[in-house]
Design goal:
By secondary structure, the protein is of the alpha/beta class. Helices cover 44% and strands 15% of the residues. The protein binds 2-deoxy-2-amino glucitol-6-phosphate (AGP). Catalyzes the first step in hexosamine metabolism, converting fructose-6P into glucosamine-6P using glutamine as a nitrogen source.
Length: 368
């Protein structure tokens, strides 16, 4: 085989551990480290100043990368973003205007629904930009602009490194958009790029949580259901965490916006339902702490991923904290993806499932 597992038990483990390196390669393609500026490797055939709205379309994990990007583009470039899964977008025939920007995200570049959505957007006269990992793929060939992720071949069916590389490209794109639209100053740009440059190192640090996560996975493996909560960009990451867990461990999991807890899912909480809370220290952190108190009061066991050590422990018992490296909150999902993936991976290993080739799933879904 061209690609082997090196010393890892599964491709997925290897691919999780490769992330600091491949995210670093991707970073080097989209930012100029010396000047701390973003620099797109290709000239964009449109000016972000002229774009009034963006639509982002993808499937599965790639759609969660798109969901994170929505937060970034709206915050950094003040551009409204509509996000769809491709199977809905294509049949909904979403209204696109000539000159709108339609972004497609796909590891394989062959996903049937995403390809159909791309063809539809083209037929409407939209600019099409794809974030793909396979540059020779159909989606890459048919897109007006291709921004490649440099994840290298991803063999595990559960997407890991492709996801974080997609996030890196989309983060750079959001900074470029903010700059072009005059929403970000040179100083803002330098600060943000600096934040991106730190990410590979922070991801390496995040990998050191693995020993602790392996132990937690033994507990998780006894559960029937797991709830993932997050606010802001941690919300799409909660969705991704739940997807990852269900696809490889077959444990039912759901991701929810933490603020939605009271609107339904809180009814499920008891001592048998672990709740994974993704909460980097940001301006909504305290809100998430009160959600955790609500969970704890109902006997729910919490696994908290945060860099705000001690801030929640004071008021909440039955809490295990996975301590994350200190970092600014903007790009936190790229780093927090690591413990989220490790938790799913180790749970699946405990369960004894076929981690790299989970039942019923294909690496690339080329039929509807
Ligand atoms: C992720 O773990 C999945 N197996 C799946 O959701 C995947 O992300 C989706 O099928 C999209 O694939 P693509 O990125 O190749 O288009």
């Amino acid at each position: 085989a061209l690609v082997d597992k090196a010393n890892y038990r599964h491709f997925m483990a290897k691919e999780i551990h490769e992330q600091p390196e491949v995210v670093g390669h991707t970073l080097a393609r989209y930012v100029d480290m010396a000047t701390e500026r973003v620099s797109m490797p290709v000239k964009l055939p449109f000016d972000f100043k002229d774009i009034q709205r963006i639509s982002i379309t993808a499937c599965g994990t790639a759609s969660y990368a798109g969901f994170v990007a929505k937060y970034w583009l709206e915050k950094l470039a003040r551009l409204p973003v509509e996000l769809d899964v491709a199977s809905e977008f294509r049949y909904r025939e979403a209204p696109l205007r000539k000159g709108d920007l339609a972004i497609f995200i796909s590891q394989s570049g062959e996903t049937a629904d995403t390809l159909a959505a791309l063809r539809y957007a083209k037929s409407q006269g939209a600019h099409t930009l794809s974030v793909v990992n396979v540059p020779t793929s159909t989606i890459a060939r048919e897109s007006e602009t291709v921004l490649q992720t440099l994840a290298g071949p991803e063999i595990g069916v559960a997407s890991t490194k492709a996801f974080t590389c997609q996030l890196m490209v989309l983060a750079s794109l959001a900074v470029a958009a903010g700059k072009a639209r005059g929403e970000l100053s040179d100083a803002d740009e330098a600060k943000l790029v600096h934040g991106l440059v730190e990410i590979p190192r922070l991801m390496s640090e995040a990998l050191t949580t693995e020993v602790q996560i392996e132990k937690l996975a033994r507990e998780i493996s006894k559960s029937r259901d797991v709830l993932y909560l997050g606010r802001g960009t941690s919300y799409p990451l909660a969705l991704e965490g739940a997807l990852k867990l269900k696809e490889i461990s077959y444990i039912h999991a759901e991701g929810y916006a933490a603020g939605e807890l009271k609107h339904g899912p809180i009814a499920l909480i008891d001592e048998h339902m672990p709740v994974v809370v993704i909460a980097p220290y940001d301006k909504v952190f305290e809100k998430t702490v009160s959600n955790m108190q609500e969970v704890a009061a109902r006997g729910g066991k919490i696994i908290l991923m945060t860099d705000a050590k001690g801030a929640a422990e004071a008021t909440i018992q039955s809490l295990v904290t996975i301590v994350m490296p200190d970092m600014g909150a903007t790009f936190a999902p790229i780093v927090y993806a690591v413990p989220v993936q490790l938790l799913a991976y180790h749970t699946a290993v405990v369960m004894g499932t076929d981690v790299d080739q989970p039942r019923n799933l294909a690496k690339s879904v080329t039929v509807e």
